[in-house]
Amino acid sequence: MNKKVILATSLALLFVAGAVSASHSWGKYHWNLSTADTIANPLKLGDNVTTAEWDLSLLVASTDWNQSVLKNDVVVGNSNANCDPTSGRVEVCNASYGNNGWLGIASIWATRGKSNHITQGVVKLNDTYFDTPEYDSQAWRDLVTCQEIGHTFGLDHQDENFNNANLGTCMDYTNDPDGTILGQLDNRKLNQHDLDEMEAIYAHLNSTDGGGGGGGGNGKGKPKKNDVGASINHNNPSSWGRAVSQDAQGKNSVYVRDLGNGQVVVTHVTWIQ
Ligand SMILES: [Zn+2]
Ligand SMILES: [Zn+2]
Q1: Higher-pLDDT residue of 19, 198
Q2: Is 28 or 241 the better-scoring residue by pLDDT?
Q3: How far is the CA of 241 from the centre of ligand 2 (A)?
Q4: Please, which contacts does 156-160 make with residues 24 or more away whose CB atoms are closer than 8 Å?
Q5: How many A from CA of 118 to the centre of ligand 1?
Q6: 270, 264 contact by CB (below 8 A)
Q7: C-alpha–C-alpha distance, residues 27 and 21, integer Å
Q8: Is the predicted pLDDT of residue 57 greater than 50, yes or no?
Q9: Is residue 234 in a domain?
């Protein structure tokens, strides 16, 4: 092989690797919403957070994700101490959820089968750990809030090794959230790959993808509490269903529970280190 052929082969391999790594969504779960839908009626992020720090993190995350094709809006929360879901929207909550091992958790409820439409989501941020010196910073709050909200839009992580260099996105595990400890990229932001993923997920035509409810409840009428939502106990991993993905350390990071009513719950966990 001459040098040119080797170069061409390497480039081809790079493209293949790029194509493979371009899929970081959870089995194509997505809201049944187009960009136009969400410009007219943004996906609601219910603000149930209780401190100025969390309000800031939520605002920053909302603003960052609004760079993507799916538009969101922070609205008054509709949840309770348990952070039960509301049909057609995402509820974001913080509380001292206890020494359960997780810093943040995101669950989405979605239709099974062809459509995989997300019908509701919750994000819970655990002050039991954010009130400890290791995590008590705006940088950690911003990172985890941004990442869990990204999961409720159907995105997965770009990298699950805490020790790899920051990719400049909150969808990347890190021990240096804002990049200032090691002088690297700021992981409280989004990178181009996030925006590309969002475009890939939400570019489909709703009219061709076969019903299934989806985000139909978005903003129409009074928000409704969903009893099914309460069946997931975030302090009891055995209620989360089957583990379907592990992080670089071999810890389970994504769980799927089949609710048996045509719906699944996908739960993504950010464990403390
Ligand atoms: Zn769809
Ligand atoms: Zn995550």
Answers
A1: 198
A2: 241
A3: 17
A4: 156/24, 156/25, 156/26, 156/245, 156/254, 156/268, 157/24, 157/247, 157/253, 158/21, 158/24, 158/191, 158/193, 158/194, 160/247, 160/248, 160/253
A5: 9
A6: no
A7: 14
A8: yes
A9: yes
CA of 204 to the centre of ligand 1 (A): 7
**Residues 44, 52 contacting (CB under 8 angstroms):** no
Report yes or no on 8 lying in a domain. no
pLDDT of residue 270: 95
- Give the domain CATH number at 155: 3.40.390
Is residue 17 domain-resident? no
| Residue 196 DSSP label | H
Whether the pLDDT of residue 188 is over 90: the answer is: yes
pTM comes to: 0.84
Q: Per-residue pLDDT for 147 more than 60? A: yes
| Least confident residue range of 29-38, 162-171, 231-240 | 231-240
Residues with Cβ < 8 Å from 17, sequence gap 6 or more? Answer: none
Cα 178 to averaged position of ligand 2 atoms, centre (Å): 16
* CA of 248 relative to ligand 1 center, distance in Å: 30
Task: Say how many domains are in the chain.
Answer: 1
Q: Is residue 4 part of a domain?
A: no
- Residues spanned by the domain of 157: 28-271
- Identify the helix (H) or strand (E) that includes residue 150: helix 138-152
Of the bound ligands, which one is closest to the alpha carbon of residue 159? 2
219: left (phi over 0), alpha (psi -120 to 50) or beta: left
